[in-house]
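Appendix B, record 7
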Amino acid sequence: LINNAMNNLIYCLFTNDNEIANKHQVKQNFRYFTDVMQKCFEEEDHNTALMLQNALQHSSIKIFKFKKRKKDKLFDEKIDEKYGSWRNSYFNHLKEAMNTKINDTYIPSLMVLNIHKEKTKIYSSHTNLKNYWLPQDIEALIGLYKVYHPLQPCDPYPLFEDPPVNDNIGLMVIANNIKK
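Structure tokens (predicted):
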């Protein structure tokens, strides 16, 4: 579902009313989603914030080389400090999520929790490596959040449906066809 959401977000960035956007419209969409990401971060919806950050850093978007606003540069520093980076699998966020008392405003990134759950399963067999948390600890936290924030029955949200373009090559082709 997270991959579908990221591909749909990227596709949405490249379109305007179901037609391929021009570069200016893509830039406007990029800034809009950047502002949404910042709002999610402030409201402690880290699941959406990290998903948006990863989508906005996709190689098909980077080819446009949009100049970042000053507030975006400051936010990038803030988010890197709080979450960590892809190099350490956002370990800072994992530490925060594992140590934060469950409440109705804090939503950790499921992507980060799943990454670390799988990594600890793989590396827990190595006795010389110290793991901060066992895979079961992370799985338990995911389960607690499922209980605390249950899914409400509703129509499927279009963001999580199968995207019109579901591979990197297709997204790169669209990006290269956008009028510069």
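Remarks on this record: Residues 12 and 19 are 10 Å apart (CA to CA). The mean pLDDT is 85.
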